Structure formats: structure tokens, C-alpha cells
Amino acid sequence: MKSVIINCDPGIDDALAIMLAVQSKSLNIVGITTTFGNVAVNQVTSNALGIIDYLGADIPVAEGSSNPLKGKRINSEYVHGKNGLANIELQHHSKPSEKDAVDFIIDNVESGKADTIINTGPLTNLFSAFKKSPETMHKLKLLIMMGGAIVEPGSITRVAEFNFFCDPYAADFILHTPVRKTMIPRDVTQHTLLLPGDLSRFSKSKSAELAVKLIEFYQKFYINDLGMLGNPLPDALTVGYAIKPELFQMREMDIVVETEGTQTYGMSVAERRGGVHERKAVPNVNVALKTKSKDFIDYFIKTLSL
């Protein structure tokens, strides 16, 4: 069983990922660290605490970065609601850890309590952890990150996915760290859809009731604004890789993130040329290119219905 820290920015999709991780009972969740992203970090932290308390879980939450390394902070309230959770107010009695996210990550990796990080938000916290204690962070067995797009269009711009765009400097740095990394890009997340008709398949359990409310709000954006048949589950799919990697078809790739381009800022750029270029490439991340979408959706619904 992997011992994981979930670094996230809840956000509806992150909330569903946390719920999947908790309900699966297949991961030892050492803690949750928060970062700016879908909404401001203080709201994100409150959301994470609310989800944990709602599920009756005992998992520490440590607050992290409030801004990117460079540039302006953006958000996606237009997708997730003003508070990031479909405007659902989840009360919580738990308090965030006295440690900040960076020290929380370093301490738990150093002690061996955490061997895997699942990243579903901007990568700023991890950049800071690697910079502060590279010897410790290189002990990680696996870093699983949701981010980027290889051939699929971007989400926040024509070419850039939201998490990488929020802090491309951190994303590019992390891609070049010498730890084992897995990337779950839009190339698989946008083709793993939960359809409106799937909502009737959820049970009436406590976790399922919250999941359905969140998804109903989430689907409105994807169906009404983007013309899609349903909503993707990018962050839950990333947790899914940690639990069921056999559902994914992977390929080692050489990827950089654009940090300066006017039109391409935040774009993940893969070496996809053949011949001499392929031979000279230095793969730095294992990338999901296909997944068994139906099997994952079935597992997601079943697990959140417990």
C-alpha cells in the first residue's frame, strides 16, 4: 500500500479525488497539503478540512503556497463556484497543521512515513520542498502529477493546462528532478467522462450524496460552456493511477514546460519527433496516453457509493 501525501487545491475535482482516496481504503493517506489554484489558499484549506470532517477521516491538513513563484495568481471560480466547492459550505471543526505544507512534506518524506506524492494542483509547494531539502525529497519513490497536455488542447489557454499554467516555473523544475514521476495529462483526462446518466448509478450513501451535488454543478460548465457530453475527473483519475495503475497505458517521454512564451506560457512541450531526435531525447516522466475509461468510471462510482 502506498503511503501518500495529496498536494491539492480543492476545487470540485480535487474534492472528488480526496473522496476517492479516502473511500478506497487502498492508500495510506499521511496528509493533505494545500496550495493556491482553483481558489485562494485559505479557502482551499478550509475546503480540504471540510471534506475530511464530512467523511469522518482523521487526516492532517497543512496549508502551503498562496502565490506562484512568478507572475499573477489566477483562479477557476467560474468552473468550481465562488468557494471552489460548488458554493456548498462544509463546516469543519478540525484545524490545519501548525507546520506549513513544505515542512510537512519534507518531514514525512524524511521519516519514511510518506513514499508517494499525488499532486493535483500547482506544483509550487513541491518546488519549495525540493529547493529546501533536495536530499530528502530525492528519497521519494513516486510523484504522480495531474498536469499538462501532449496533443490535447489546453484548458486555461489554447495550449496550456491549468495546473502547469498556474506556475510553469515550478512545473518545469519538478519535471527535471531525479525522482520517478508519472504524469496524467489532459490527453487521458478529457476522454474519461462521467455522463449525466451516470449520476443515477450512485447510491444514497453520505459520500455519494455529496459527490452527486458537486458533479451536478461541475457538469454544467462542461456541458453548457464547452459542449462536452459530461465532465472529466482529472484529479480523481490521478488518484486512480495510484490505486489501479493497470488501467493506464504509459510511455516514457522527454517533456519541458514553456515559461516565457507570450502565446505558449505554461505549455507542456514533448519531444515527439522520431529518428535522431528520439534517440537524443532524455525521458524524464512516465506519461499516461490511454486509459480504460469505463473501468475507471465504474470503480469511481462504486467506491464513492460506499
What's the number of extended β-strand segments? 12
Number of helices: 13
Q: Which percent range fits the helix content?
A: 25-40%
Mean pLDDT: 98
Strand content: 15-25%
Which value, in Å, is the CA radius of gyration?
18 Å
Overall geometry? globular
Low-confidence stretches: none
Short description:
Helix content is 39%, strand content 17%.
Sequence-ordered SSE layout with sheet pairings:
Elements: E1 3-8, H1 12-24, E2 28-34, H2 41-55, E3 61-63, H3 77-80, H4 101-110, E4 116-119, H5 124-132, H6 134-137, E5 142-146, H7 162-166, H8 168-175, E6 181-184, H9 186-189, E7 193-194, H10 206-225, E8 231-232, H11 234-243, E9 248-253, E10 255-257, E11 268-270, H12 276-280, E12 285-291, H13 293-304
Parallel strand pairs: 1-2, 1-4, 2-3, 4-5, 5-6, 6-12
Antiparallel strand pairs: 7-8, 9-12, 10-11
Helix pairs in contact: 1-2, 1-10, 1-11, 4-5, 5-8
Name a few traits of the molecule:
alpha/beta, 17% strand, eight-stranded mixed beta sheet, globular, Inosine-uridine Nucleoside N-ribohydrolase, Chain A, 306 residues, two-stranded antiparallel ribbon
Describe the structure in your own words.
The chain has one domain (3-304): Inosine-uridine Nucleoside N-ribohydrolase, Chain A. It is 39% helix and 17% strand. It has 13 helices and twelve strands. The strands form three sheets. Strands 3-2-1-4-5-6-12-9 form an eight-stranded mixed β-sheet, with helices on both faces. Strands 7-8 form a two-stranded antiparallel sheet. Helix 2 links the parallel strand 2 and strand 3. Helix 1 (12-24) runs parallel beside helix 2.
